[in-house]
Design brief:
319 residues, peptidylprolyl isomerase, mainly alpha, single chain, repeat, 78% helix, two-stranded parallel ribbon
């Protein structure tokens, strides 16, 4: 960066400047700026790649997508066709199901039935349905990531941490709607970025696990146990030995009355941490909930039996 003895002195002074606490805000602002610039550059590169793919495609494919390129949302969806691993843009542009969905979306927009935000949701819901034949391809090919060098990655992760801190404050205040908003913004950052080195990517994944657990906690607090299980699943895919995720998922399974799954998570947790006090507490909570369910079932069956006896006695008296 700097040359010669004078340069070494300047470099040392610059490093000292960066370490000063009062300059942290300036440094973080610069890191955010560099991260945004890197993302903007990647967007420009994608646009150029998209243009080249369209020009290289066969005439029929170009004709199929032409009506949709003037619409910002539809153009972005068409742009994902370039993510095909084999580079076969025409395969998607000539797919009758895909083209028909684009036509239907355009028709609804032109008629004023959907706005740009609605149409994206409309199409994604169709393709995001696991029953849809193009679901897996859509899920894989539309994943957008930015591979950032360390300095820019730090800026992006700092932005994610700011959102998580705000989410934590809202969570502690029991404002779960606000907490969810900030955690989802944090998730959007960590799911969008990738590190160039193995160490940087490991740091991204550590932060992914943390934000997934934050989201699981919010869903637990609002008794949306299915959502909590889903986010714990995501955390455990990245870190199978994460005891916090196992404990939280066990609690979520208990909330759903899925006691076998809850017990399985506790068994795995005990293997990893035999002395865990949280595991013992959750085991007791699991047993209490299971017994309460059994008592409710017995009461229901008892009432049903009593009613059947009364009905039988009435029938016998009438005869």
């Amino acid at each position: 960066m700097f040359a010669g003895e004078q340069g070494k002195g300047l470099e040392a002074s610059f490093k000292e400047f960066l370490k000063r606490p009062e300059n942290a805000a300036i440094l973080e602002k610069q890191q955010h700026k560099e991260a945004r610039q890197a993302l903007q550059l990647q967007e420009k590169m994608r646009a150029l790649e998209f243009r080249d793919k369209v020009l290289e495609a066969e005439y029929e494919a170009q004709k199929n997508i032409a009506p949709f390129l003037e619409n910002r949302v539809l153009r972005r969806i068409v742009q994902t066709f370039t993510n095909d691993p084999s580079g076969d843009f025409s395969k998607w542009a000539n797919n009758p199901r895909v083209v028909e969905m684009l036509r239907e979306a355009k028709r609804l927009m032109d008629g004023g039935f959907l706005n740009e935000d609605d149409v994206e949701t409309f199409m994604i819901r169709q393709l995001d349905d696991p029953a849809h034949e193009a679901h897996e391809d859509f899920k894989r090919k539309t994943r957008r990531v930015a591979r950032l060098p360390t300095e820019q990655l730090v800026g992006a992760l700092n932005e994610h941490l700011t959102e998580r801190r705000q989410g934590n404050e809202a969570y502690r205040s029991r404002n779960y709607t606000k907490a969810l908003h900030h955690y989802e913004r944090a998730k959007a950052v960590v799911e969008f970025v990738e590190g160039l080195s193995r160490a940087d990517q490991a740091e991204v994944e550590v932060n992914k696990v943390a934000v997934y657990l934050n989201l699981a906690a919010v869903h637990m607090a609002t008794q949306e146990y299915g959502g909590a299980v889903g986010y714990c699943d995501k955390a455990l895919e990245l870190d199978p030995a994460n005891t916090k995720a196992l404990l939280r998922r066990s609690r979520a399974h208990t909330g759903r009355h899925d006691y076998e799954a809850a017990a399985a998570d506790l068994a795995r947790l005990r293997q990893l941490d035999p002395l865990s006090p949280e595991a013992a507490e959750q085991q007791a909570a699991l047993e209490r909930t299971r017994q309460a369910d059994r008592r409710k079932e017995q009461a229901v069956f008892g009432h049903m039996f009593e009613r059947s006896q009364v009905a039988a006695a009435g029938a016998a008296g009438a005869s």
